[in-house]
Amino acid sequence: MKDIETAFWIKAKGLMFLAIGLIASALIWMDHPELKTALYLALAIWSFCRFYYFAFYVIEHYVDPGYRFSGLWSFARYMMRRRKK
């Protein structure tokens, strides 16, 4: 599959991910409309965002400048290779 190169479609893809996340979160909260559920969802979303930042930016810029991020599968392979050494 070819990479998306058009700025419009890259932005559209990002907005679709945002919409999916918002809809999924709303559906979970509607199923269990409690403050505790909303807090757990917010914490989970924040934690996953920080992990993605860690996998993308921190490893590439501070840990291993030779590593080039191309997705979470790439990061998983990178971590497995590092573990074997």
Describe the main β-sheet briefly: none
Number of separate strands: 0
Cα separation of the termini: 32 Å
Order of helices and strands: HHH
Indicate the overall shape. Answer: flat
Q: Mean pLDDT across all residues, rounded?
A: 88
Q: Give the domain tally.
A: 2
Give the helix/strand class: mainly alpha
Strand content: under 5%
User: Which ranges are low-confidence, i.e. pLDDT below 50, for 5 or more consecutive residues?
Assistant: none
Short overview:
The protein is mainly alpha-helical.
Give me some keywords for this one.
0% strand; 85 residues; 2 domains; 3 helices; single chain; mainly alpha
Give the helices and strands, then pairings.
Elements: H1 7-31, H2 35-63, H3 72-84
Q: What does this protein structure show overall?
A:
- There is one protein chain.
- This protein is mainly alpha-helical and 85 residues long.
- The chain has 2 domains: 32 residues; 52 residues.
- The protein has 3 helices and no strands.
- The chain is flat, with a radius of gyration of 17 Å.
